[in-house]
Every structure is written in C-alpha cells, then in structure tokens.
Amino acid sequence: MDLDSLEELRANDPGALGVLIAEFPQQVLQGWELAQGWEPRPQDGDVSAVAILGMGGSAIGGDLVNAIVADTCPVPIHVVRDYPLPGFIGQDTLVIASSHSGETEETLSAFEEARSRGARLAAVTTGGSLAEIAHEEDIPLLEFAHPGPPRAAIGFSVSLILGILSRAGLVPDASGDLKRAAALLDRAAVHLREDSSTAENRAKRIARMLYGRIPVIYAAEHLAPAARRWKTQCNEVSKTAAYFEILPEFDHNAIEGTGFPEAAQRDLVLVSLFSASYDERTVRRVRLTEEILSSAGMAVEEVKVEGENRLEEALWSVYLGDYVSLYLAALNGVDPHATPNLDSLKQQMARSD
Ligand code: F6R
After folding, report:
1. This model's pTM is above 0.85
2. Alpha carbon 219 to chain centroid distance?
C-alpha cells in the first residue's frame, strides 16, 4: 500500500470514511449552530449532576465535553456506558441520551430507567427509536442529519452536548472557542488529509510506525478521552488490537508491565499524548514515565499536541488520531468503514429478546 497514492487510498475506502473524517471541523460548527435552537426547560440549569448515556462513538463526545469543561462546570458530569444507572441519578439530574442510530439497547434501557426516576431528559440522535420516544413523550430532542457511521459524527457529538450544557446555563457560551478550534483543525487538515504526502503528513508517519504492532495510547488530564478515542478508532477503523491507559494511574501499575512476555517489547508501541499545559507535576511524571519505559526496551512515541486551550488540544488530538486510524486501515488492507463484528453482535442481540 502506497499511502501517497490517492487512488490506492480511495480504493481501500469504498464507504469514503476519509471524506467523513475530513468533515470534523465543519461538524463542530454545525452541531453548535443546531444546539443554539435548543430550548432549555426552566429547571434544566438547576441540576445537581449531568449524566450522558451512550456507547462507543456516541459516548466519547460526552467524555471529551466532560474533560473540556472540567474547570468551569459547577456540577459533576458522568458518562454512563451500560444498561443500569448509578443510584445518584434522580429528579435533579440532567440526563442526555446520545445515540447516533437511536437504536442502541444499552442507551435506550438506561434512558427508560432515567425516565422512570423522573430525571430531566434530553436526547441527541439522528432518529430511530430514541427520536420516536422523544416525540411521543415530549422530551427535548436534538436531531441531526449524518449519513455516516456514529464514530464519524464525533464533531456533532461534542458540539451538540456542549451546546445543551451551555444553553442550560451550566457552561459558558463556547461559540468563539469553537470557531477558533475549527480554524485550528482546518489548518491541521492540510497536513493530515489524504492528498498530503507522507513527508508532510504526521498521521501517515505515525500509522507506519504503528503498523504490525499493538498500540497502547496513554495521556493525562483533558487528553485522557483522546487516548481512548485513538484506541477505539484503531479498533473500529483499522481493525487493530489497541489499548489505552491514563496517567497518573499508569505509573502505579502498567509501568511495571514491560518484561513479559518477551513479545511485549517487540509488539507493543506506546503512544504518549503530551500537552505542555499539563500540570507541572504531570509534565515531570510524563517525562520520567517515558524515560523508564524506553530504558525498559519499550518503543515510545511522544505526540506533542497542538492548540491554545483544552478544547483545541483535545479536538486536535482526536483529529490526528482519526487520520492515523484511517491510514493504518489502508496499511492493513481493511475497509475502514465496515464493522462486521459489531454489526453481527448487535443483530444477534436484537434477535435474542
Ligand atoms: C460505530 C461506532 C459504535 C457506535 C456504538 C453505539 O461507528 O462508532 O461505537 O457508536 O455501537 O451506536 P450508536 O452510536 O448508534 O448509539
């Protein structure tokens, strides 16, 4: 596979996932615009917690928003990826169900439970049962149009959820920040997209480095969800086994897992998402961690993220990781759009009820 041949890249991507990944900056702005039409119920701002219900590509937007607003949102935000709801969720919780298809059973089940507990509800979806329930029950709904797979709607997911929180008065207006972030992503795209050569394209070079190995992506603070996103995109887009770790917890256990089996040193590659804006103790920790891992014989690649603030750094990291996964899919010779195992499992689960 020649990553510099647009023809070969396109032939490997019949569902045009590359085109959808490129739309990330526009999605961020479109989603925010759409969320401005959101009419918060008078009581929405007066909540003690926010819960975002979702799975996979529809949950990660909640993690990113949580990380981005961690220092401004006055109430805790929890992302729930399961059927049951934690006990704290009740009448004074704002519960946002996020499901691209509107058909994900874990999300629908948790949403039903939140409804029976009298929580304040909101739904973000492209349609399906979730939209139907919202219409029938007069639940506030943000419906967006997106023809691709859920993981390619990450820009919508982030800005729609952020928009709901902002309209509910829980976080400040992010219009200017999102515009600047989208402009940063547009500038980054010139050196990430498919028509830029490997010499200029960091994503293509990282994909080459990951090829044939098992990536373990780690990060701290606001970049933790980006590490998770890299992992899930390597899985779903590139069909590659990949894992993620979060600092500082990493240093209390995973840092010892370097010696056995011997294949670990040959097969694993550690990718460190590094922000110069990390807390100074975290910066020191990241440096020491990299040194220890390298001297233990592990391959470590540091990715210094770009951006002026948490939002920009988190979105930039996601964008880079999404392109890395696209090029890794090309190197692996797999269709980046298709998710046969996931689809088959969902179908079988649907049949078994
Ligand atoms: C597929 C993808 C998945 C889905 C997940 C939940 O592209 O990203 O992780 O997001 O299976 O489905 P939805 O988003 O429809 O609720």
Report:
1. yes
2. 14
300/281 Cα distance (integer angstroms): 20
60: CA distance to ligand 1 center in Å?
10
Measured in whole angstroms, the distance separating CA 58 from the mean position of its chain's CA atoms is 8
Element (H, E) at 12: none
- Single out the residue of 323, 319, 218 nearest to residue 273, CA to CA: 218
Please give the distance, rounded to the nearest whole angstrom, from the Cα atom of residue 293 to the centre of ligand 1.
34
Ligand 1 pocket test, candidate residues 17, 53, 64, 104, most atoms within 8 A of CB: 104
**Catalytic center residues:** 236, 252, 346
Pocket probe mutation, ligand 1, options 83, 103, 143, 151, max atoms within 8 Å of Cβ: 151
What CA–CA distance (Å, rounded) separates 191 from 203? 8
The dihedrals phi and psi of 341, each to the nearest 5 degrees, come to -65, -45
Mean pLDDT within 323-330: 98
Q: Which two tokens stand for residue 333?
A: 């010779």
Contact indicator for 198, 204 with CB cutoff of 8 Å: yes
Helices (H), 23-149: 24-35, 60-68, 105-116, 128-137
pLDDT tens-digit readout, 34-74? 999 988 776 666 899 999 999 999 999 999 999 999 989 99
Bridge partners of 350, per DSSP, are: none
Contacts of 77 (CB under 8 A, 6+ apart): 49, 50, 51, 52, 62, 65, 66, 69
Q: Could you tell me if 299 and 269 are in contact, meaning their C-beta atoms sit under 8 angstroms apart? A: yes
Burial track 151-178 (b if 16+ CB lie within 10 A, e otherwise): bbbbbbbbbbbbbbbbbbebbeebeebb
pLDDT score for 142 = 96
Ramachandran quadrant class, 239 (left: phi over 0; alpha: psi -120 to 50; beta: rest): left
90 CA → ligand 1 middle, Å = 26
